[in-house]
Amino acid sequence: MDVTPLVKEGQQIVQSYAGGVFRISGQTYSSSVIVTPEATIEINLNGDVQVLTLDDFKPLFDFVADYDVFLFGSGAQMAFLPKELKNDLRSKGIAFDVMDTGAACRTYNVLMAEGRRVTAVLLPY
């Protein structure tokens, strides 16, 4: 399903992902990113989900109230966040839907094109 025609001008869309590189609205990123309809932010997240901490997600805290859906692309395979981190994030208003990065990219694009208030944290693999 091609959702590109549904995307409003200026919105961020994940055009491709391969070999550890994201192409988002014409720009390339080779690190972890936060993608919202308005912006893409490069972040420094270790690829090992089990060692992530609440501090790693600080860039989300400033605009958590602006979004209803939070996606987490955990890499090549789905990997759940540690229970303590998951609880800490929930206390900040962030409840992630966790999936592999490819699925998170596709889900983000569909939800964003539908006009949903969505953001995604995407780890490369």
Please characterize this protein's 3D structure.
- With 125 residues, the chain is α/β, with parallel strands linked by helices.
- 21% of the residues lie in helices and 27% in strands.
- The strands form two sheets. Strands 5-4-8-6-7 form a five-stranded mixed β-sheet, covered by helices on one side. A three-stranded antiparallel β-sheet has the order 1-2-3, covered by helices on one side.
Structural class: alpha/beta
Percentage of residues in helical conformation: 10-25%
Number of helices: 3
User: What integer is the average pLDDT?
Assistant: 92
Enumerate the strands of the largest sheet in spatial order, edge to edge or round the barrel.
5-4-8-6-7
Give the overall silhouette. Answer: globular
What's the SSE pattern? EEEEEHEHEHE
**Radius of gyration, whole Å:** 13 Å
| Strand percent estimate | 25-35%
Number of strands: 8
Largest sheet: 5 strands, mixed
Low-pLDDT segments:
none
CA(first)-CA(last) distance? 24 Å
In short:
The protein contains three helices and eight strands. The protein is α/β, with parallel strands linked by helices and 125 residues long.
Key features?
125 residues; alpha/beta; five-stranded mixed sheet; three-stranded antiparallel sheet; 3 helices; 27% strand
